[in-house]
Amino acid sequence: NGGGNMWPMLAGIGPILGEGIAGYFIDPDGNEPSWSFENGASIVNGTTTVTRIVNSYELIKSNPKVAVLLNNGIASSGEVIAISFIGRENTKSFGSPTCGLSTANSSFTISNGTLILTTAYLADRNKTKYGIPIKPDVTVGNNNIIQRSIEWIEE
Description:
It is a single chain. By secondary structure, this protein is an alpha+beta fold. It contains 3 helices and 9 strands. It has helices at residues 6-17, 77-85, 145-154; strands spanning 20-26, 34-38, 41-44, 48-52, 66-70, 91-95, 103-110, 113-124, 138-139. The strands form 2 sheets. It has a 6-stranded antiparallel β-sheet. It has a 3-stranded parallel β-sheet with strand order 5-6-9, covered by helices on one side. Helix 1 (6-17) packs parallel to helix 2 (77-85). The longest helix has 12 residues, at 6-17. The protein is globular. The chain starts with 5 loop residues before the first helix and ends with a helix. The mean pLDDT is 94.
């Protein structure tokens, strides 16, 4: 996942991720708005629904084991989703570090257009800040990543 709009991705993966706060945007002033999944929707700061999935699916087994696969092709909003799984029970990441664009951007109108600046770090549910590549729990090359992930899930 090389990036894009994080909110539909979060809503789509939400039933697997589980309900509740999955991460934070931490800015230089110490503001910490959260991102979460609740009742089929991605939520910002606990109150604002950003994307709701109509007919959201239900898992046969709640809280399944999840293997998160990482490499340097994972960037930006893809890193949001990877960070969302950090600290989740029954979860382990495999692969190599992500691209390192684990920050949030804001748009500012200027006289001749729009200026987009990085304004916050992404942080996991434990408020560990990133802004750097996300390192996997298990470092493994692309040739063995699937096999290692399957072995862990089947343990």
